[in-house]
Amino acid sequence: MPSFSSFFEEAWELDQNDPLGKYRGEFYLPDGKIYLDGNSLGLLSKRSELALTEVLDSWKKLGIDGWVQGKRPWFYFAEDLGQKMAPLVGARPEEVVVTGSTTVNIHQLVATFYRPQGSRRKILADVLNFPSDLYALKSQLILHGYSAEEDLICVPSDPSGRYLDEDEIIAMMNEEVALAWLPAVLYKSGQLLDMEKLTKAAHERGILIGWDACHSVGAVPHRFAEWGVDFAAWCTYKYLNSGPGGVAGLYVHKKHHGTKPGLAGWFGSDKERQFEMAPEMIPGSDAGAYQIGTPHLLSMAPLIGSLSIFAEAGMEAIRKKSLMLTDFLFKMVDQIFSSYGFETGTPRNPKQRGGHLALEHPDALQISRALKAEGVIPDFRPPNVIRLAPVALYNSFIDVCEAMKRLKQIMDEKKYQHYPTESKEVT
Ligand SMILES: *Cc1c(COP(=O)(O)O)cnc(C)c1O
C-alpha cells in the first residue's frame, strides 16, 4: 500500500501549479472543515455576498423605484442574469432566463412543449433521475388526462444500478414518444450522458428533448444552441454557488421562441408592454416569456457575483481541474481504499464523468456520519453511496488528500461503527 506522504507530495505539487487556486480565497470555507459537498450546496463567495448587499441597498435607498433605477434595475434582472449565464450552457444570450426552481421550470417546459398527438403521447425519462423530475413529469401526464404508469416510460438502469446505456435510451425513442427529459449528469453516480448524440437521435425520431443540467452546469461545458437542444433547466445553488434556494436557470432554443408559455403569468410578458396590464398576455419574444411571477430578487442577487467568477475563470479550466481532482480521488481509492471494501460507482472515462465521485460501501451511511464528525463534509445517497464533490473553484488537491487520510483513519479504527444506521436528516 503506498503511503499517504507520497499523495500529499503530489497534491502539493498540483496545488502549486493550479491556475484556479487563487479563487479559493474568495470563498467562505466552513471553519476547520473540508467541504466536499458543492454539488448539493455550493459555498458563498465574497463577490456573491457583496452582490446581495448591493441589492439590499438598492431596496433600502430606492424602495419601489429599484425596479427601474439604480445600478441594476430589478425589472431586467432575470434576463440580465440569463445573458450572463448563457455561456455556461452554450446558449445565445436571449435563450436563457433565471427564474423559478428546477422543478417549477420542468413543469413550465413540459406544459409548454409536451404536445401529444394521436399515439405519439409518451414522455421518455429514466429510472435514475432525481425523484422531483419524475414527480413533475407524472403530474403533467395526469393533468393531460393520461396515465402516469403507462405514458411515462423510463429507461432502466444497467445491472449495476448506477448507469444508463445510451444505446438503450435511443432504442426506446420510438414513434410513441413525444418528449424526452433526461439528466445531463446522473445525481448519484455522476455519469455524464452524451447530450449531443442523444439530442440528435431524438430529433431524427421526431422527439423534442430537454435536459436537466442540475449536476452538470458549472462543472461541465455545454453547447446547447449548437446541439439544437430544445429546452433545459438547472438549479444554481449547486456548482453555481447561488445560495440555499437560489433561483434556477431555464433555456429554450431560439427556434421555439414565440411558443406560448404553458403556464402563463405576467412576468412572461413582453417587457415593454407588461405594465399596460392588458387582460390578454403578450408574451416576450425570448426565453423570458417562460417566467411566471415576480422574480425572487434576493435569491438571484448572489448569482451576479458568482457568475463573474465563472466568466473570469472559464469553464474549460474549471472542467480540466475538476477532472484532475476526481482522477486523483480515483487513484487513491484504487491504491488504498479498495482493500477496505470501497468501490467507485462513477465512470472512469472523462467523457462520461461529471464533477463528483461516488464512493460505495455497504456501511456508507455510518461512514459518511463519521466523516462529518471528523470534519469532512460529503453527502450520502441511499443505499450505499458517499458522494465526494471536489469543486474546482474552491477545493484544493490537499483538501482531497486530507479528506481521504481521515477516511483511512475512520476505517482503520472502525470509528464508523459508533454511528446509527437509520437515516433521517438532510444530507
Ligand atoms: C437538485 C436537483 C433538483 C432540485 O430541484 P428544486 O426544484 O431546485 O428543488 C431537481 N432535479 C435534479 C436532477 C437535481 O439534481
Describe this structure in words.
The chain has 427 residues and is of the alpha/beta class. It has helices spanning 4-16, 46-62, 77-89, 102-113, 131-143, 148-151, 166-171, 195-204, 224-227, 297-313, 315-337, 364-373, 397-412; strands spanning 34-35, 96-98, 122-126, 152-155, 177-183, 208-212, 231-234, 249-252, 343-344, 357-360, 376-377, 379-381, 385-388. It has a seven-stranded mixed β-sheet, sandwiched between helices. Strands 9-10-13-12 form a four-stranded antiparallel β-sheet, with helices on one face. Strands 1-11 form a two-stranded parallel sheet. A hairpin with a 3-residue loop joins strand 12 (379-381) and strand 13 (385-388). Helix 1 packs antiparallel against helix 13 (397-412) and helix 11 runs parallel beside helix 13. The longest helix is centred in the C-terminal third of the chain and has 23 residues, at 315-337. It is globular. The two termini are 32 Å apart. Pyridoxal-5'-phosphate (PLP) binds next to helix 4 and helix 5. The site of pyridoxal-5'-phosphate (PLP) has 12 residues, from helix 4 and helix 5.
Topology:
Layout: H1 4-16, E1 34-35, H2 46-62, H3 77-89, E2 96-98, H4 102-113, E3 122-126, H5 131-143, H6 148-151, E4 152-155, H7 166-171, E5 177-183, H8 195-204, E6 208-212, H9 224-227, E7 231-234, E8 249-252, H10 297-313, H11 315-337, E9 343-344, E10 357-360, H12 364-373, E11 376-377, E12 379-381, E13 385-388, H13 397-412
Helix pairs in contact: 1-13, 2-10, 3-10, 4-5, 11-13
The structure holds pyridoxal-5'-phosphate.
Cofactor: pyridoxal 5'-phosphate
Keywords: Hydrolase, Pyridine nucleotide biosynthesis, Pyridoxal phosphate
Subunit structure: Homodimer.
